[in-house]
Design brief:
Structural class: mainly beta
Radius of gyration: 13 Å
Helix content: under 10%
Order of helices and strands: EEEEEEEEEEE
Distance between the termini: 40 Å
Length: 122
């Protein structure tokens, strides 16, 4: 089993920055893909960014390219999402997830954290 716990959410003004963390415990295999997804009120959960655990290949949704950076600290089993130049449209609950395939489809992810709220005021 894999357990994921997010932290770092909060309230920030537009243009500000936040850094989300996701502490992973349990059996993390090097072949896993880790991802950040988000869900705004009334909307489906959507892909934000993913990273392959062993070779750090990344992918981002177009709306966050150049503003968000996904990274890992493999020694500490921790996933990060650095979010800069935040916009009100980034307001959502952010979830980290772990899966066995390098895909952006949320349905392919096996393990999920509880989520952390990010609110961006205009």
């Amino acid at each position: 089993q894999v357990q994921l716990v997010e932290s770092g959410g909060g309230l920030v003004q537009a243009g500000g920055s936040l850094r989300l963390s996701c502490a992973a415990s349990g059996r993390i295999f090097t072949g896993y893909t880790m991802g950040w997804f988000r869900q705004a009120p009334g909307k489906e959960r959507e892909f934000v960014a993913i990273i392959s655990w062993n070779d750090n290949i990344t992918k981002y949704v177009d709306s966050v390219k150049g503003r968000f950076t996904i990274s890992t600290d493999n020694a500490k089993n921790t996933l990060f999402l650095q979010m800069n130049n935040l916009k009100p449209d980034d307001t959502a609950v952010y979830y980290c997830a772990a899966g066995r395939r390098y895909r952006t489809d949320k349905d392919l992810y096996d393990y999920w954290g509880q989520g952390t709220q990010v609110t961006v005021s205009s």
